[in-house]
Design a protein that fits this description.
By secondary structure, the chain is of the alpha/beta class. It has 37 helices and 24 strands. It folds into 5 domains: 150 residues, Rossmann fold, CATH 3.40.50; 101 residues, no CATH class; 180 residues, 3-Layer(aba) Sandwich (Rossmann fold); 162 residues; 196 residues, Lambda Exonuclease, Chain A (Alpha-Beta Complex), CATH 3.90.320.
Length: 924
């Protein structure tokens, strides 16, 4: 395959001007490296290389201007707006549209539009929109709004002059200056540069068109394009839009100097596969699998193109450790890196202090525990803590033990653990510039701590530069009014932040974004995230200028931007032989689940031009949603030994409920001991509410033991006596005490916890009234035998294995000759939930909650076999059914017959549980 740059090398070598006197301008710096290699392969003797330079570097070099930083430009625009148009303009309002205005200024300059004309025209349009208002509808605010648009030309001029006076410019302004300099100083340029060669360009803006035409007419420039007749000569193909309409191209065609036109797309055997993938990140795995068995030679001629560059970390993680060398020409954006998240967490601290203003007596700000947990759990914090990282978990554990909802930096004792971060960062009184200065200091200090982690050091250095530059800018332009704006400012800076990951550029597979593909050719192409809305982006513009205004003045709209990427797409296909185009079928957003229209165009149109093209659609399925339920854990000898240990200690009704419901969850929680999230509690959750209610009722039906006040003994209160009457007035106060006992520091004066307190008070008040009336009917035949009664039992399996059972019954009552094992339920339970039509394991799998009552009854019956026993539920919420006893094959009373049936059910459950051939897995 003769690549485009091979042809360019041949073109440059054919020139009468020696290579070392040529200035070669390329769309990217990377293209220069590959062009140098192409030249070396065609030279038969050593030679000095041409000078390679990017178009933007050339423009700033020729004009002598310095590129102004984004933060400085942003604040200077705000300053100009306040000086010229809106003295009362708040930064918060400006922040909503300031970047869009800068982008418009940039495009106005790149396309050489007269600012006064376009903004006056825009102001006239706004006035026309309000032409039919009644006299009374004209307000000062409306007048200010209508004056704003034409005044933007004045803002532009003030910003432009202030920057040029310091030798600075934004990109578009430098392009305008470039066009003007070439027009007026062509002779001076000719004295410094003998010949320019512009290689592989496509979408020239008006400033470039004007300057390059002038250079061409002066004999200072030649051009070599990479354009296929397929899209250049077809007016319906957007990829050829810019080249077809370029005045420069038309001039070159007229002079027979339009080099680089070809028909590569119509020739050669091509294989194209469009692959639909269920998930964005899964594309990386599919792509890695496609490439894993290929030779190093094939991979050296392969490009992996990421349409969504945020996929880079996922792709790198999916690559096999033994994968041959690859080269990242796109660098690594830090916007989604752990460091970016770490600094966002830190910037959240002063924001919270600004909003909540909680602080200790000595001036330390108090922060919500979730803020501290995010910091304590972050991998960057652990790296900085080094060998003391284990103390972070100790601090977290202590915070949980105390349920410290708003601890301070000093109370947690973090001074030594994250020493590079100044403790003053966590105090209340700090300015925004000071905040960024401290973060810069943190990055600088951390570089010496993390000496053995080069990639992390590179990222830290990038953030050091960002924070240092931002601190200087904020000190010079102190316009940020709050820490919320500070956080927004930080987020605005992130997209431009990255580190260069380039290795040896000429070896291995190339991983790149679309802009890095310019001028380069590969035999094999793999493209990820080729979804509509990602490539092309479509109507995702940041601009204050309406579409029609842009069209009138010749400014690019989303249509032209789509055409730019259409060219990049088709150009990359021109010399490729194997092409894999992956798109996600489960991306978020409207339309982006569809493959890019570029893919559909290839499928429908390219075969008409090339008969040797094979196009195939495929679906790459991920592990299905049922994969979790298909997860299995085999029962190893060690795991079975763990079950034996639990059997010795005893299985509780709740553990069997969990096993019947989901054996896999039982394995994680009961066998491995992995507990659900144990984060601090700022709102009383349902389990904690249940514990509070149970303890309240335990105290209600028991008294302190006179012989041992720390223990309690059963108490049968008189339904008409003091217990039920006295409990009602003091109920809420007791609930408060219990809530704080279970969750120390819980805020009860407002918010959801106050609602929970009122809800539980209402529930208990109604329950106590109901229970008083019910027990009054029972009279003296009723008494309380026990509360929170510990029960034990045992069953034997056919193998001879002994299984111990344990549990706590909420309350045990006696009504006449019948014993009632009572289980309190704070939820709305019904009789149906606890009715079992047949005493077998399958019935309990369908209603796993029903296993608890017969287990309580069985354990009590084994200790008291002569008694008549019923297991009953008392619902605190659904009083109409209270109490309801569990029906076991139509019988509510545990007797010798159904007792044996319950034992048989439990034996079946445990036989399955201990069977080494039946893995733990979720039930279907």
């Amino acid at each position: 395959m003769s690549s485009f740059l091979d042809q360019v090398a041949q073109f440059l070598l054919s020139q009468p001007l020696p290579l070392h006197r040529q200035t070669v301008i390329l769309p990217s710096r990377r293209a220069g490296i590959f062009l140098q290699k192409a030249l070396e392969s065609q030279l038969d003797k050593p030679s000095l290389a041409p000078r390679f330079i990017s178009i933007e570097d050339l423009i700033f070099e020729l004009t002598g201007l310095e590129a102004v930083s984004r933060p400085e430009l942003y604040f200077r625009l705000f300053e100009c707006l306040r000086n010229s148009v809106r003295p009362d303009l708040k930064f918060e309002e400006f922040n909503r549209w300031g970047r869009a205005l800068l982008q418009d200024f940039n495009e106005i300059d790149r396309y050489l539009i007269e600012p006064n004309q376009i903004f006056t025209y825009l102001g006239d349009l706004k006035r026309i929109e309000q032409w039919n208002l009644e006299p009374g509808e004209h307000t000062r605010m409306l007048d200010d709004y209508l004056k704003f648009w034409p005044a933007l030309a004045e803002v532009y001029q003030e910003l432009k002059q202030s920057l040029l006076a310091e030798g600075k410019a934004w990109q578009g302004l430098a392009y305008r200056a470039f066009a003007e300099k070439v027009q007026h100083e062509t002779k001076a340029i000719a004295e410094e540069y003998e010949q320019f060669f512009f290689i592989g360009f496509n979408a020239l803006n008006n400033a470039e068109e004007k300057a390059l035409l002038q250079l061409y007419d002066a004999g200072l420039a030649q051009f070599f394009w990479d354009v296929d007749r397929y899209y250049f000569e077809d007016p319906e193909q957007e990829a050829g839009h810019f080249l077809r309409n370029s005045p420069l191209v038309k001039r070159l065609q007229k002079h027979d100097a339009f080099y680089g036109l070809h028909d590569e797309l119509a020739h050669g055997t091509r294989k194209v596969e469009s692959i639909a993938v269920a998930g964005s990140n899964l594309q990386s795995i599919i792509a890695s699998n496609l490439l894993s068995e290929q030779s190093e030679e094939d991979l050296a001629q392969t490009a992996m193109v990421l349409s969504d560059e945020a996929l880079l970390p996922a792709f790198l993680n999916s690559i096999h450790p033994n994968f041959p060398s690859l080269n990242l020409s796109m660098g690594l954006g830090l916007q989604h890196s752990p460091l970016a998240g770490f600094f966002e967490i830190l910037l959240d601290f002063p924001l919270e202090a600004e909003r909540n203003a909680k602080k200790t007596k000595d001036g330390w700000a108090r922060y919500h525990f979730k803020r501290w947990e995010a910091l304590l759990n972050h991998p960057i914090t652990h790296k900085i803590a080094g060998s003391s990282a284990y103390k972070l978990q100790e601090i977290r554990t202590e915070m949980h033990r105390k349920n410290a909802l708003y601890p301070s930096f000093s109370e947690l004792g973090l001074e030594q653990l994250i020493e590079p971060l100044s403790a003053d960062f966590f105090k209340v009184d700090q300015g925004i510039g000071e905040q960024y200065q401290r973060l810069a200091h943190f990055c600088e200090a951390s570089l010496s701590v993390l000496v053995d982690q080069s990639s992390l050091q590179e990222g830290l250095f990038a953030f050091y530069q960002l924070f240092k530059q931002s601190a200087d800018t904020l000190n010079r332009f102190p316009y940020l009014e709050s820490f919320e704006q500070s956080l927004q400012f930080y987020r605005e800076l992130l997209p431009d932040l990255g580190i260069d990951l380039r290795g040896e550029p000429l070896q291995g597979m190339q991983v790149m974004g679309w802009l890095e593909t310019r001028c380069l050719d590969f035999k094999q192409i793999v493209v990820l995230s080729l979804n509509e809305g990602i490539l092309p982006k479509g109507r995702s513009e940041s601009s204050l200028l309406p579409f029609d205004v842009k069209r009138k003045f010749g400014l690019p709209t989303y249509l032209e931007k789509d055409a730019v990427f259409a060219y990049h797409f088709y150009r990359l296909m021109q010399r490729a032989q194997s092409i894999y185009l992956l798109h996600s079928t489960s991306a978020s957003g409207i339309g982006v689940v569809e493959p890019s229209r570029f893919v559909r165009q290839l499928e429908l149109e390219w075969p008409q031009k090339n008969a040797r093209l094979l196009f195939k659609n495929q679906i790459a399925t991920a592990r299905s949603q049922e994969a979790k339920s298909n997860e299995q854990v085999a029962k190893s000898p060690a795991l079975l030994q763990r079950l034996e240990e639990i059997a010795l200690r005893g299985f509780s009704p709740s553990s069997l409920y969990l096993y019947l419901k989901d054996p896999l969850q039982f394995y994680y929680e009961k066998v491995l001991g992995l507990k659900p999230d144990d984060s601090l509690m700022e709102e009383l959750d349902l389990p904690a509410q249940g514990n509070v209610l149970h303890e309240f009722l335990e105290y209600g039906f028991s008294l302190p033991d006179p012989e041992n006040p720390e223990e309690r003994i059963p108490h049968s209160p008189d339904p008409e006596g003091s217990f039920f009457k006295q409990k009602l007035p003091e109920l809420k106060a007791q609930l408060k005490d219990l809530m704080l006992k279970h969750v120390p520091g819980l805020p009860l004066e407002q918010g959801p916890n106050l609602l929970h307190l009122e809800s539980m008070s209402f529930m208990l008040r109604n329950f106590l009234k109901f229970e008083s009336a019910r027990l009054k009917k029972l009279g003296s035949s009723w008494k309380v035998l026990a509360t929170e009664k510990g029960l034990e039992g045992r069953i034997s399996l056919a193998s001879g294995r002994q299984i111990n059972l344990i549990g706590n019954a909420d309350r045990i009552d006696q009504e006449g000759e019948c014993i009632h094992i009572i289980d309190y339920k704070s939820g709305a339970k019904s009789k149906y939930d606890y009715s079992i039509s047949s005493l077998d394991m399958e019935a309990f799998i369908k209603k796993p909650q029903a296993i608890q009552l017969p287990m309580y009854a069985l354990m009590y019956w084994q200790q008291n076999p002569q008694l008549e026993i019923q297991a009953s539920v008392l619902s605190l919420r659904k009083l109409s059914d209270n109490p309801f006893s569990m029906k076991m094959e139509k019988s509510a009373v545990l007797n010798s017959e159904n007792q044996e049936a319950i034992v048989t059910v439990l034996q079946a459950i445990f036989e399955e549980m201990f069977n080494p051939d039946i893995p733990f897995q979720s039930r279907a």
